[in-house]
Amino acid sequence: MAPRITVIGTGYLGATHAAAMAELGFEVLGLDVVPEKIELLSRARVPMYEPGLEELLARHVAGIEGASGRLRFTTSYAEAAEFGDIHFVCVNTPQKRGEYACDMSYVDSAIESLAPLLTRPALVVGKSTVPVGSAARIAARIAELAPAGEDAELAWNPEFLREGFAVQDTLHPDRIVAGVCSDRAERLLREVYAAPIAEGSPFVITDFPTAELVKTSANSFLATKISFINAMAEVCEAADGDVMKLAEAIGHDERIGKKFLRAGIGFGGGCLPKDIRAFMARAGELGADQALTFLREVDSINMRQRGQMVGLTREAVGGALLGKRIAVLGATFKPDSDDVRDSPALNVAGQLHLQGAQVTVYDPKGMDNARAIFPTLAYAPTALEAVRGADVVLHLTEWREFRELDPAVLGEAVTERHILDGRNALDPVLWRKEGWTFRALGRPTA
Ligand code: UDX
């Protein structure tokens, strides 16, 4: 019989993983300690915007008309332990307050709650992003707590999903990494991922520390790539170069590649910033801090981009921000998401506001989340309303909707036709044709 699966922690990662497992044909029980989340999910709803996720839930959540019924939710660990052969741990591991290190309290409490209830053979599979060394510690804790003894074991299977592509990345991963200690664990994970493996997803077996490190090093590499091109943007600013052309040209070298070379106001979100900081903190604990000091530079290049954008804006309005009307297009950390965690766009909007400008923000999906974090900014219901009367317009998140804006129509609404592209995603020719001054980060003359 196919193994029965539980997913512990039904946030972004867990909700998507649970729905994907049901889609792959498994009986799935999702668990969360927050009853409101369970109540929403039981109606096939999620508290965030993620394309395709609610549709996938609706295909499987028990009680929804026409659904397979393979996916149910609970708040009871006893029910999860009784039900599952494989327990995926998907709780979040945020940055600790006031520190770089990662807060493991949700993972730890999931294990402390589940392990003492494991009375029959079970594989606990960690998916959360954790500091290297955590899996070994958790495995030892499971061995101490689980009544099933050696029949309850741990595997580590990091998740690489991107927001906005969570469903696709989970159903069709570009690789599956499994840190395992036994053949049984490997066999069970091969069974779970049989469909993507058959489609050609590479299945990489490792030990625990390597599996944990794959995740943090992948995110560090991506962050480094973005900060590299942003450092080149800074040099282009100084030397009158064009960072977009430069990225295109170096990207033709297959060893470098074109992706993740878009210069702009930098990376944000719930993963990259906190993951590179937690990685530095962990390397310090291990006595390998020197190996990762470059990540401090990656982080500061990234944070500097936000300041550069504020500087460009100040220049565009004649040197002083006080009382200037600024329209900000975009609040989320990237398009196709409603996530504003550590969003460069919102950070820039906030800085401008604190320096005395009147900032009006519009974002296609991130308005409620943005308002909750920055209630003092003004918010407009459309891009056109946001730019009304503006002295300068800032493009800070590259939503498709913004590329489709008509510069002629917007031009009628603004006070001054100044646009600053913080994401290098707009076409300068189109805007200039309608009489706008166009300026983008890293392209002073383009
Ligand atoms: C990331 C990783 O991609 C994913 O594999 C991991 O599991 C979780 O972290 P995500 O947080 O969804 O996913 O965002 P991603 O698409 O990687 O973008 C991160 C940030 O980098 C965004 O703010 C984006 O705007 C920025 N970015 C991306 C750039 O500034 N330039 C680029 O060229 C690419």
Please outline what is shown here.
44% of the residues lie in helices and 13% in strands.
CATH homologous superfamily descriptor of the largest domain: NAD(P)-binding Rossmann-like Domain
Please tally the β strands and state the result: 14
Number of domains: 2
CATH class of the largest domain: Alpha Beta
Q: Radius of gyration from the CA trace?
A: 24 Å
| Biggest pleated-sheet summary | 6 strands, parallel
Roughly what percent helix?
Answer: 40-55%
Q: For the terminal residues, how far apart are their CA atoms?
A: 62 Å
Shape: globular
Q: How do the strands of the widest beta sheet line up side by side?
A: 3-2-1-4-5-6
CATH topology of the largest domain: Rossmann fold
Arithmetic mean of pLDDT: 97
Which regions contain 5 or more consecutive residues with pLDDT less than 50? none
Heteromolecules bound:
uridine-5'-diphosphate-xylopyranose
Task: Give the count of helical stretches.
Answer: 19
- The CATH architecture of the largest domain can be named as 3-Layer(aba) Sandwich
How does the helix and strand content classify structurally? alpha/beta
Strand content: 5-15%
